[in-house]
Write a structure and sequence with these properties.
The protein has helices at 43-49, 97-100, 154-157, 163-174, 190-202, 214-223, 236-243, 259-267, 291-297, 311-323, 342-350, and strands at residues 2-10, 18-25, 31-40, 59-60, 64-72, 84-87, 118-119, 126-127, 137-141, 145-147, 182-186, 206-211, 227-230, 249-254, 269-277, 300-303, 335-337, 357-360. Helices cover 27% and strands 26% of the residues. The structure holds zinc ion (2 copies). One zinc ion is lined by residues 42, 44, 63-64, 162-163.
């Protein structure tokens, strides 16, 4: 048996996305079918459409989602039909060298569904980040389902599946921000603002937001920035030092992923500080730094994949904090849209007009 549902695909490089009929197979061993309730529009979906990730068209887009488990395959024990879940792209294997070292947040062999979803003519789809969630039902590995408190609305909870988790995790997991520390965040879109909210949650005292768009700096203040710097008008490194008694921050987070920004983050931190790269660079970018500065300043340069999150640990925690009013997930939702508005959501995202557009079903 299988299901026929509507979903949003990118058929070929650069072409506008379209709504198509998707055939979703019954879940096989270890798999689950999830009724999607909400799915955020992420930059990565746009990168897939532009052919920037790989050439395995057609893609079933969407990967930042929450919904209800509709069916499970043989051997599935971590979730049951009716559970409210956030989908993740880090279903840890438990067997790779990272997992065996007790560091599953770095798992090198994460699980995805073994079966393929297809178009009605049998063409196999490549689901974005192994999920594919701009669709009424999707097929995933059961490990990609993280059960959370169903009192959280899907529009908010789903955002933890990618961008918000990446930002929060960059601060609290990768950066290890502790109470009383100072933090600078470069780039105040969804991921950067989530890093700011994460730094606030961790008890950072000084939180400096850096962007070239005053509107984004205003958003950053709402998420907890104590200082803002428009780096198109002011030297960001000098401004950050001025906000930290001349020393620089304990943790500098680059949520842009550009060498010029990374360099500012590098020089804006205090001695023994940490730099975290969570923005995604393009393959052509190069970084040149004086090696003596890298040595002499001590500390650490780290990159953050998916906020070094462990979905089973981090998603329920953040949902609980949200339900207690201690983490502002709703504030990331700029608008809710239908499947037919994904293309225009890409445009708004590209222009920086929204933090997140969320497709609801
Ligand atoms: Zn593993
Ligand atoms: Zn994403």
């Amino acid at each position: 048996m299988s299901y026929e549902v509507k979903g949003v695909i990118a058929r070929s490089k650069g072409a506008p996305v379209e709504i198509a009929t998707i055939v979703v197979p019954d879940p096989g061993p270890g798999e689950a079918v999830v009724d999607i309730q909400a799915c955020g529009v992420c930059h990565t979906d746009l990168h897939y459409r532009e052919g920037g990730i790989n050439d395995e068209f057609p893609f079933l887009l969407g990967h930042e989602a929450a919904g209800t488990v509709a069916a499970v395959g043989e051997g599935v024990t971590n979730v049951a039909v009716g559970d409210f879940v956030i989908l993740n792209w880090r279903a840890v294997c438990g067997q790779c060298r990272a997992c065996l070292k007790g560091e599953p947040q770095y798992c090198f062999d994460t699980h995805n569904a073994a079966q393929k979803m297809t178009l009605t003519d049998g063409t196999e789809l490549s689901p974005a980040l192994g999920i594919g969630a701009f669709v009424e039902k999707t097929l995933v590995h059961s490990g990609q389902c993280t059960k959370v408190d169903r009192q959280a609305p899907a529009t908010a909870a789903g955002l933890l599946g990618c961008g918000v988790m990446a930002g929060v995790g960059a601060a609290i997991n990768t950066g290890g921000v502790r109470r009383g520390e100072s933090v600078a965040v470069f780039g105040c879109g969804g991921v950067g603002d989530a890093a700011i909210a994460g730094a606030k949650l961790a008890g950072a005292t000084t939180i400096v937001a850096v962007d070239i768009d005053d509107r984004k700096l205003e958003w950053a203040r709402q998420f907890g920035a104590t200082h803002t710097v428009n780096s198109s008008q002011t030297d960001a490194v000098e401004a950050i030092k001025a906000a930290t008694s001349g020393f620089g921050v304990d943790v500098a987070i680059d949520a842009v992923g550009h060498p010029k920004v990374f360099e500012q983050a590098f020089y804006a931190r205090d001695l023994a500080g940490r730099v975290v790269l969570v923005g995604v660079p393009t393959p052509d970018m190069q970084l040149t730094l004086p090696l003596i500065e890298l040595f002499g300043r001590g500390g650490a340069l780290k990159s953050s994949w998916y906020g070094d999150c462990l979905p089973s640990r981090d998603f329920p925690m953040l949902v609980d904090l949200y339900l207690q009013g201690r983490f502002p997930l709703d504030d990331f939702v700029s608008e809710t849209i239908g499947m037919d508005a994904v293309e225009s959501a890409f445009e708004k995202m590209h222009k920086g007009e929204v933090l997140r557009s969320v497709v609801t079903f």
